[in-house]
Write a structure and sequence with these properties.
There is one protein chain. This protein has a 21-stranded mixed sheet, with helices on both faces. It is elongated, with a radius of gyration of 26 Å. Helix 5 runs antiparallel to helix 16, helix 7 crosses helix 8 and helix 15 packs across helix 17. By secondary structure, the chain is of the alpha+beta class. It has 17 helices and 21 strands. The longest helix has 18 residues.
């Protein structure tokens, strides 16, 4: 199932072209230098966000009882996980009591903090600065010392750095030096080799200004990660080949502005042809609208997709979700002679979908007089793909249910969002409360296919999703090719996440492997599906001409 989830997430990633373009990045072949920033973040802390009226709906969401319950669930799980992250650095028998870790995690979530890691990875140096009361600073002093002792990394000895007091651990093996000091209202923790540079630098700033860095009260979070070089620490991310990422979250009063910059080592091979999608069949009411272009290089890396025989590979798509009770999505891709394309790809779909989903589901039937391919055998759904023509252009149109009847055109300003933006590669609008419901329905469908129980409605994650929905409204995401080697993603939202991202976050928290991996519980054993059900009923002859 882990392999299945990876493949499903890859397909979902294609909906986010900017992030999906991570498939085009290679792991770094150089370890970096002592000046290479591998990781860095500045977080104002939940205690600050709870009282900052510039941070859109975040204060109201943080105040929800369901948020508190979910936070307790997450802290309880995380307090048992540090040993797993650091296992390869620890001696045999090293372990940590969750009671020592839990209060540190509470402060990391609540208080303002700054962290930085510089390379090279095998000889990296790290620093953490966190603003704490005297009582909590003393707790950190004791608990961190006890954790290092439990991990058999050494016993702390007293340390004085000017007026700052604390302790240090010196070792013969990496990490060779660990220091803890209290300076003003801040606790500083440094980890490195023979001589630390980051901790003394922050300590100097605290002594001068009372802070390790300049305060930006309307920027709740800044984040940098050099993912290609962090693969050894985070092997679970290695298959996604993410590029270096810089993220800034800014409170704008009525909304949050998220900006993510993805920087690549080589120019991106994206062809930005004019937008093509059938405007006349997109009917109101809808709750989502998504377009992307330049996707051919991404599709070429989806295992099995090039063998379907679509030439050239589709280079853009358009998808929309109607405002229906059941989750539904329609998708179009421009294809030359789509009726022949159905005959061409039909016989290859069973093998492709089985490889994609790690199981065989139903079978495919071509209805030639409708130029439509049906994927039968799904519970509830009837996925279909058919050839259409509109305004002189040909498309393949896919959906999960029959298209609802409507004569209402969508708001004209919806399509106008794509005008005068020559470098736009991705645009997505959604009404997040509705798409959150749809995302949960898709997850439940996947549970049905895999014979799994649905998460209980009283689970903290499910209660939280239900509680936050009334606080959410529109989410708009744009991805732009801002430079030959750079994609910039900008989002305007209430909470920073889309419906499917919120639902996936909940499932991740529920996962047995949280937070280091996404590992849903194994499905009960059941009889293997009959292979005859996966055959495609597609005649070998060419398709008749597409009726117009």
């Amino acid at each position: 199932m882990a392999a299945t989830m990876k493949k499903v997430r890859l397909i979902l990633g294609l909906m986010l072209v900017g992030l999906g373009a991570g498939c085009l990045e290679n792991s770094s072949s150089t370890p970096g230098t002592a000046a290479t920033i591998l990781y860095r973040h500045h977080f104002l802390g939940a205690a600050h966000l709870a009282h900052n009226t510039n941070d859109a709906k975040i204060p109201a969401i943080l105040a929800l009882p369901a948020t508190h319950e979910l936070s307790e669930e997450i802290l309880q799980k995380l307090s048992r996980k540090p040993d797993e992250l650091w296992r390869k650095f620890l001696g045999a028998g090293a372990s940590t009591s969750p009671a020592l870790v839990r209060p540190l995690l509470e402060d990391l979530a609540s208080a303002e903090s700054y962290a930085e890691v510089r390379g090279p990875l095998h000889r990296s140096e790290s620093v953490l600065a966190i603003e704490l009361s005297e009582e909590r600073a003393n707790l950190w002093r004791a608990n961190l010392g006890n954790i290092l002792t439990a991990w058999k990394l050494g016993k702390p000895s007293p340390l004085s750095l000017g007026a700052a007091q604390g302790w240090e651990v010196k070792r013969a093996e990496s990490p060779m030096l660990i220091q803890f000091v209290r300076a003003g209202q801040w606790v500083l923790v440094g980890v490195g080799q023979e001589r630390l540079t980051l901790l003394p630098g922050l300590l100097e700033q605290v002594n001068k200004s009372g802070r390790p860095l300049v305060l930006q009260p309307n920027v709740p979070l800044e984040f940098d990660a050099d993912f290609p070089r962090l693969n050894n620490w985070l092997p679970g991310l290695a298959p996604y080949k993410l590029p270096p990422v810089h993220l800034t979250l800014t409170g704008k009063g009525d909304y949050l502005r998220t900006e993510v910059t993805l920087s690549y080592s080589d120019p991106l091979p994206l062809t930005l042809e004019p937008w093509r999608f059938p405007t006349n069949i997109i009917k109101d009411p809808i709750v989502s609208f998504t377009v992307a272009r330049g996707i051919a290089p991404l599709l070429s890396q989806v295992k099995g997709f090039p063998t379907l025989g679509l030439k050239p590979l589709p280079n853009q798509f358009c998808a929309w979700g109607p405002a229906t009770v059941l989750a539904d999505t329609f998708l179009t891709i421009p294809v030359a002679n789509p009726s022949n394309a159905l005959y061409q790809i039909g016989p290859k779909l069973p093998e492709f979908t089985t490889e994609l989903l790690s199981q065989s589901i139903g079978g495919f039937t071509l209805i030639s007089n409708r130029n439509e391919l049906l994927w039968q055998g799904w519970p509830v759904l009837l996925p279909h793909l058919r050839a259409i023509r509109e305004d002189g252009a040909d498309y393949l149109l896919g959906g999960l249910f029959p298209m609802p009847r409507s004569t209402n055109p969508p708001p004209p300003e919806l399509f106008s969002q794509l005008k005068d933006k020559p470098k736009l590669v991705y645009y997505d609008w959604e009404f997040t409360p509705e798409r959150l419901v749809h995302a949960e329905q898709f997850q439940q469908l996947w549970d049905m296919v895999n014979n799994r129980k649905f998460p209980p409605t009283n689970a903290p994650t499910q209660k939280w999703l239900k509680a936050i929905a009334p606080h959410l409204a529109n989410t708009i995401t744009e991805g732009t090719l801002s430079a030959p080697k750079e994609v910039t993603i900008v989002r305007k939202s209430d909470f920073g996440l889309t419906g499917i991202e919120l639902a996936t976050l909940a499932r991740w928290v529920e996962s047995a492997g949280f937070p280091w991996s996404f590992e849903p519980a194994k499905a009960p054993s059941r009889p293997k599906p009959k292979t005859s059900g996966s055959k495609t009923n597609v005649p070998p002859a060419k398709s008749p001409a597409l009726k117009r």
